[in-house]
Amino acid sequence: MMLGRSPLTCILLVAVATCAVAQHAPPWTEDCRKSTYPPSGPTFRGQVPWYTINLDLPPYKRWHELMVDKAATVKVLVNSLKNVVNAFVPSGKIMQMVDEKLPSMLGNFPGPFEEEMKGIADVTGIPLGEIISFNIFYEFFTMCTSIITEDKKGHLLHGRNMDFGIFLGWNVNNNTWTVTEDLKPLTVNLDFQRNNKTVFKASSFAGYVGMLTGFKPGLFSLTLNERFSINGGYLGVLEWILGKKDAMWIGFITRSVLENSTSYEEAKNILTKTKLLAPAYFILGGNRSGEGCVITRERKDALDVYELAAKQGRWYVVETNYDRWKNPLFLDDRRTPAKMCLNRTTQENISFAALYDVLSTKPVLNKLTVFTTLMDVTRGRYETYLRDCPDPCIGNHNHGSGWLSCTTLDGM
Length: 412
Ligand SMILES: *[C@@H]1O[C@H](CO)[C@@H](O)[C@H](O)[C@H]1NC(C)=O
Ligand SMILES: *[C@@H]1O[C@H](CO)[C@@H](O)[C@H](O)[C@H]1NC(C)=O
Ligand SMILES: *[C@@H]1O[C@H](CO)[C@@H](O)[C@H](O)[C@H]1NC(C)=O
Ligand SMILES: *[C@@H]1O[C@H](CO)[C@@H](O)[C@H](O)[C@H]1NC(C)=O
Ligand SMILES: *[C@@H]1O[C@H](CO)[C@@H](O)[C@H](O)[C@H]1NC(C)=O
Ligand SMILES: *[C@@H]1O[C@H](CO)[C@@H](O)[C@H](O)[C@H]1NC(C)=O
Fold this sequence. Notes:
alpha+beta, eight-stranded mixed beta sheet, six-stranded antiparallel beta sheet, 33% helix
């Protein structure tokens, strides 16, 4: 096998090419939004449908009902991705390789993941290699904002925007990103059950078996944000391909914690200590005062665990895609506006509505935002809304599109 021609290298080349066309982007911001909740108007795209995933079924069968509904939509996305790949390497050899070689190259995935992906491939008729690529894809290109707040009574809320950070296929008709748009109809809310009882709830993209956003009612909430670092995920994937399989895929560990951890402390311990394939930020909230943290991970170790401390005035934590002790990339500062709007809200007035206002303020809301999730662990409330970001809005092709992909490159 020649690593130099692996499909992952191809994805990298796409990122390089995207980066090469980057232009200068003026930061685009607006005043903190007010009264955007309940969601309506031009930034609200629609509701997200609920599906039940029965964990009592064998992994191969769990996703059938959902995938029968979404097969055609998954194919649209897979085709958009293929078009991108084929535009860079027109021979079609890359996709042939993904279909024929990728599954054996990557070998077996742990736990239920292998069988779940096989089941999804069979029911949709999409080759397993493409389903695997689709699953790996999210390990690399998700830009996000996550926030945990604590009110004066010690009550916690957790919110997040899921931004899909890859600049491919600009649609000139309506100024949107093809992949971001393709992901909206794939967005689903999932109620994972055992014995007909909820184990956890999550928002995800049909066909993806890892989880990036979810909560366990009464116990904890968890979101994952991409982290770019020199010792990045590409090395981890290479090690995996070369047979060193002692590390976890980041979307898979998040799923395992949501499924099997039984407390905030246990989740925190696993997310802090397990060896990972890629760096990441885990944003974890619990069910009582003080239980909220951002875990900054290298592949082997946690660099930092930053916790709520309301008594000292730290009544929220915010994470985008940068280490908290470093400045964000100046073209991509979503952190300062999020903090500014939280400061203006004040701890007295924090609520789902206030959190949704913050997550609706540009550039926290941007062209790549697919959905917004709001979670209240103790009250068991879980809401996800599809988003749009009508012009003027940052993340626009004409205003310097390549910057997020360039950040990806820094992580190589
Ligand atoms: C933009 O156009 C694409 C392709 O026609 C469509 O799928 C997408 O929903 C549109 N997006 C918006 C926000 O109008
Ligand atoms: C779950 O509920 C369905 C219908 O309500 C029932 O047929 C089934 O036996 C239940 N399963 C379990 C494991 O309790
Ligand atoms: C959760 O734990 C069960 C029982 O140990 C195991 O079979 C399953 O694979 C685990 N789930 C995940 C997602 O790791
Ligand atoms: C909060 O979580 C702990 C486990 O960390 C659990 O024992 C406790 O019952 C939970 N509290 C509530 C009110 O659900
Ligand atoms: C928010 O408030 C904190 C505490 O007063 C302050 O340290 C921080 O600079 C403020 N951030 C912004 C972006 O306004
Ligand atoms: C907080 O809410 C109260 C009651 O709705 C309102 O009077 C007050 O102005 C709000 N404070 C801020 C800083 O928005």
